[in-house]
Amino acid sequence: MSRRPHVRKQYWNEPEMGLWEKAYLPEILRGLWITGSIFLRNMGKWVTGRKGALTTYYPEETRWDYAQANRGKHVLTRRPDGTPQCVACNMCATVCPAKVIEIEAGFDPADAAHPKYPVRFEIDYSRCVFCGLCVEACPEDAIRMAKEVPNLPSGDRWSMWLAKEELLDWQPQSDVAKPYPPAPARVPDGERG
Amino acid sequence: MIADLVISLVFIGYAISVLMGFGTILTWVERKQAAVMSDRIGANRAYIRIPGTQVKLVWLGLFHGMADGLKMLLKEDFKPRTYDWYAYAVAPWVVFTPVLLVFAVIPFGGSLTPARLWEPLSAFFGDKTWPMQIATLDAGILIVFAFSGLTIIGAMLAGWSSSNKFSLLGALRAGSQMISYELVLGLTVLGLILVYGTVNLDAMVRQQSGIVLGFLPAWGIVYQPFAATLFLAAAIAENKRIPFDLPEAESELIAGYFTEYSAMKMGLFMFAEFIEIAIIGALFTTLFLGGYNLPYMSDAGFAFPGGAALALPHGAVVVTQLGTFLLKVFLVCSFQILIRWTLPRFRYDQVLMFAWKFMFPLALANLCVTAVVVWAVRA
Fold this sequence. Notes:
The complex is a heterodimer.
Chain A: H1 19-22, H2 25-47, E1 74-76, H3 91-95, E2 101-107, E3 116-124, H4 133-137, E4 143-145, E5 161-162, H5 164-167
Antiparallel strand pairs in A: 1-4, 2-3, 3-5
Chain B: H1 2-37, E1 48-49, E2 56-57, H2 64-74, H3 85-102, E3 111-112, H4 114-117, H5 122-125, E4 130-131, H6 141-148, H7 151-161, H8 165-196, H9 201-207, E5 211-212, E6 216-217, H10 220-223, H11 225-238, H12 250-253, H13 263-288, E7 297-298, E8 301-303, E9 309-311, H14 314-340, H15 348-378
Antiparallel strand pairs in B: 1-2, 3-4, 5-6, 7-8, 8-9
Helix pairs in contact in B: 1-13, 1-14, 2-13, 3-6, 3-7, 3-13, 7-8, 8-11, 8-15, 11-13, 11-15, 13-14
């Protein structure tokens, strides 16, 4: 095979440099002017007590531009009397693709309308994929996803579980998704107990 | 005799602490300045917790330097299976030591008379005056070039003895690049030597404390603006930093000539690089920015162009000169970091072409023009 002399390939977008660009120094000074002015602008902000960076300090600061529909931390809704709306039907735990929800059901004979309630309701955020299927599966509108992300950064995986108490801390002023109070269920006397 | 020794020891201690301080602070300055330039915050998570409390001191990320140093000291000291163990072990020190030695001839202040600082000192020091410089040598700038030329031996040794092809390529690149730019560096300074008529650095600084054209301070950058630009570019190339960091180009050579070095041996290379930033700053300040003097200032005090003069006590002059020198060096260092985070890296052929076809002719032309002008003025 004969070797052909090397011909440099010409690209369609070959940059055309004039004498000004080839002199190199003016373009360098232009670049230094750009970076230097950005530096001075940001330093001016820092020394006057403002923030001169686009960065968000992640765990300490939350970003303001989460979408309203962002699927973040789970919340458990409550009835007007403060008890969790969850009836421990295990639908969310069943549909969960990552199998992160653990529910232990309890029986409360005093509440005739909702005798079943969760004793334990825990979510493992080290495995949660934030798909939102639990919210869709819930028949009682008991689990929702808030806009804010859970406070995840941590040194070990066991502190990334959220228990019922932390999930119940959502305190909306008014809830229009469901009429409150729900109509009391009528239970015949003979069936009680 | 004893007084000379004491003064020398004090100056040596000052110089070493200044260099080590600059080497440590510049790692932080480099990170933070790069971050501020690109709208970021920069490293700020290393902290020191006050024992027994939950109070964490962050101090703008200043502790990252300590964390890095500790990490380098505690890391595994990897040793490659090399046939030339001695050269491998000695290379970081060959890079590191000359960088420190260069500072010996740089004047970091005017003259010091201990008796005028504090009266009781005259019992021990007498009325003698010492120039604030470790070694008062007439050869000055020649010593600087002699020592800074030595660092290349360390780079070549490191690359050669690592028995790694990437290291060898990096060392070859370092060798060709540093020899090319050493030439430009020498030629740019020759113009300055013509103007000042001396190679003694302290004499150069004293000549720069005058006034030229009625109002401008007689700094080297006023006489030789062209040479100042070329000098800074060539000095950055000597230091092998972006845009001239071909010997350690990560995308091509992993880490270049110190690929096989780990832990504190690699730290020595990095530290030498950061101290050399400060050395370049000190050299540039001494040669082109009037050294340790503020504009219109000399050892006696200020002499403003309007004819007004302001005499200062000796202590104030000494403190002002030391502070001015540090400030100027810091500003030049900061400018070098600005360049490092602004310009993209050259291609390898472009680096040598830039040295031999662009900077070398320009430096020669600058030298010729300077020679003719100096001859015309003196005639």
